[in-house]
Specification:
Elements: E1 5-7, H1 14-17, E2 20-31, E3 39-44, E4 47-55, E5 58-62, E6 67-70, E7 75-79, E8 84-89, H2 92-97, E9 99-109, E10 120-124, E11 130-133, E12 139-145, E13 147-148, E14 151-152, E15 163-168
Antiparallel strand pairs: 1-2, 2-9, 3-8, 4-7, 4-9, 5-6, 5-8, 7-10, 11-12, 12-15, 13-14
């Protein structure tokens, strides 16, 4: 609907990134009053969308009665399953006043056996995230879903994944134990680091 999106997986095949299907970054963009745009009603089926808001607010409505408002640090986890219609639009406050909008949306493929599961909506507020840090105290880890180093996030997943937002101070280091049987992805928003 006219808002700027950076497509993180552009040019990659589904075979290379499955169970992830798409990663979009909205903004960061500073909108004036009545400039903020949203995604009007549209269908999804067979996958999940995970929307994480860094700045701003988004209102969600869906055809199965799910929805709510998510703001700074909140997550919306929508399982489209057998099929759903939904929208993601600016709140009245954001539409009338403008402001910063910045968010990430990850599309997660559902396993073949769950493609027709019942749709569901999870609104996960920032206050419900599991917070932990690195041993040196230089990394703040906000766990949204899955397990990381014996800590679990509040999100319920159909696909075995862990999702976290990590903030690293300059010179800090974070070591995350990882099961090599699972897929891993790192998406860096700002700054520079070495990932190994």
């Amino acid at each position: 609907a006219g808002f700027p999106v950076y497509r993180g997986f552009a040019g990659l095949s589904v075979q290379d990134i499955d169970p992830f299907l798409m990663l979009d970054q909205l903004g960061p963009v500073l909108n004036g009053p009545f400039e903020t745009k949203g995604a009007p009603w549209h269908p999804h089926r067979g996958f999940e969308t995970v929307t994480y808001v860094l700045d701003g607010e988004i209102a969600h409505h869906d055809s199965h009665g799910g929805g709510g408002i998510i703001g700074d640090g909140d997550t919306q986890w929508m399982t489209a399953g057998s099929g759903i219609l939904h929208d993601e639009v600016p709140t009245d406050k954001v539409l009338n006043n403008g402001g910063w909008q910045h968010g990430i949306q990850l599309w997660v493929n559902l396993p073949k056996t769950l493609k027709f599961s019942a749709p569901r909506y999870q609104g996960i507020s920032a206050s419900k995230l599991t917070l932990t840090s690195s041993h040196d105290g230089g990394a703040l880890v906000r766990i949204i879903a899955g397990d990381i180093a014996a800590h679990s996030g509040p999100g319920s997943t159909h696909t075995p994944i862990a999702i976290a937002h990590v903030t690293l101070a300059p010179g800090a280091q974070l070591v995350v134990p990882w099961n090599p049987e699972f897929n891993a992805m790192v998406y860096m928003l700002l700054g520079g680091t070495t990932v190994g």
